[in-house]
Design brief:
Layout: H1 26-31, H2 40-48, H3 55-60, H4 69-74, E1 103-107, E2 110-116, H5 141-153, E3 159-164, H6 172-183, E4 190-195, H7 197-200, H8 207-214, E5 220-225, H9 234-245, E6 250-255, H10 264-276, E7 280-285, H11 300-308, E8 321-325, E9 332-334, E10 340-343, E11 346-350, E12 356-359
Parallel strand pairs: 2-3, 3-4, 4-5, 5-6, 6-7, 7-8
Antiparallel strand pairs: 1-2, 8-9, 10-11, 11-12
């Protein structure tokens, strides 16, 4: 069995919820000098979206830096309760593309399998912030059976993506059985895991877990979510190295966030660090229109300017694709392409089906 301490569940049928962490409350944040006064606004922000930081993240934060990029991502802010006319409860249309519980089938040849809606650390900009961390977040056995039956019946699906929540918090038994069942389906040829675990809980990348991910003839690729170079701690780099040494394909996904990485020099450093530790830069996401996240958003024009400054100054190996998830679940659009055009004060965005949508900021 894999060691999950300090993330062990009561038994192997449960999700390994994070236990014993110092920072799962505003009071704990205050004890670590990461908050001053606990105001009603902060209490409301913490009520709307769970608070959790792993010990590693706490150690990465400089409490004397009011603009610390790690703190900005994980420590609640009163700005989260400000009114926002553009915000959506389901900004990328998970529900609109959910034929059964646990499945998001937005594109014909691939789908998301969300078995767990819990994380060891909760990003304040999360587009699933209304769902993650609520009611345990583990998909029931009955819903899991229906989700697997859906995948088995839909022969057009070539790739399954484990997302969430943090899929690498699943119990060892459940993760192993899930991968075995998916690998046994002849039409599933590729598996992918969207994860922040190498950054937030790098100790989870044990030799046993790495072997599980690397085993079998059908490859498992990891998309590692990381937004700032300081997140690539020595412990994280060690975990990433173990994954890369096992031959597991590693890709990055980052979110362009105001006050975190909306600077071409920071992004250039981040993308170079990815390549140096054998992660292929993949997507740089424009921030989604999730409730409580307005203070993280840059405009499309600002984002375009920042990303264009990377062109010509960064090796082609280091260039991510700057992407917009079209609100409502209509797919992604490459922002620096003819899929995104300025129309007056708004934007006309074309999806992979050739459908046009008006995007307002």
């Amino acid at each position: 069995m894999l060691s999950l301490a300090p993330f062990a569940a009561a038994n192997d049928d449960e999700a390994p919820f994070v236990k014993g962490l110092a920072t799962r409350s505003l009071k704990a944040l205050q004890e670590h000098d990461l908050l001053d006064d606990i105001t009603p606004e902060l209490e409301e922000a913490a009520f709307r979206h769970p608070v959790s930081l792993t010990p590693l993240l706490v150690d990465l934060i400089d409490p004397d830096d009011i603009a610390d990029p790690i703190a900005r991502q994980f420590v609640p802010s009163p700005l989260e309760i400000e009114e926002d006319g553009q915000a959506l409860s389901d900004p990328i249309g998970d529900q609109a593309n959910a034929p059964v519980t646990g499945i998001v089938h937005r594109y014909p040849d691939r789908l998301l399998l969300n078995l767990l809606h819990a994380c060891p650390a909760y990003c304040r900009f999360c587009f699933r912030r209304g769902k993650v961390g609520r009611n345990g977040g583990l998909l029931s056995p009955e819903d899991t059976t229906r989700a697997m039956a859906y995948i088995r019946e839909h022969k057009e699906v070539w790739e399954v993506i484990l997302s969430g929540g943090e899929p690498l918090m699943l119990s060892p038994r459940r993760l192993r059985e899930t991968l075995m069942e998916l690998r046994a389906m002849a039409h599933i040829r590729a598996l992918r895991i969207h994860t922040r675990a190498p950054i937030t809980i790098p100790e989870r990348m044990t030799p046993e877990l790495v072997r599980l991910l690397a085993s079998g003839t059908k490859p498992v690729s990891l998309l590692i979510h990381c937004n700032h170079p300081r997140e690539l701690s020595p412990a994280a780099l060690g975990a990433i190295g173990r994954l890369a040494d096992a031959g597991i394909p590693l890709f990055s996904q980052s979110v362009l966030l105001k006050g975190v990485n909306d600077d071409p020099e920071i992004l250039a450093t981040l993308m170079r660090r990815f390549v140096e530790c054998r992660i292929k830069p993949h997507y740089l996401h424009h921030p989604d229109l999730a409730r409580g996240t307005k203070h993280f958003r840059v405009s499309l024009s600002e984002g375009m300017t920042i990303v264009r400054q990377l062109h010509g100054t960064l090796s082609g190996l280091c260039q991510p694709r700057y992407m917009l998830d079209i609100p409502g679940g209509h797919g992604k659009a490459a922002i620096l392409s003819d899929q995104v055009k300025k129309i007056g004060e708004d934007w006309l965005v074309t999806n992979f089906k050739g459908q046009d949508f008006l995007y307002k900021e």
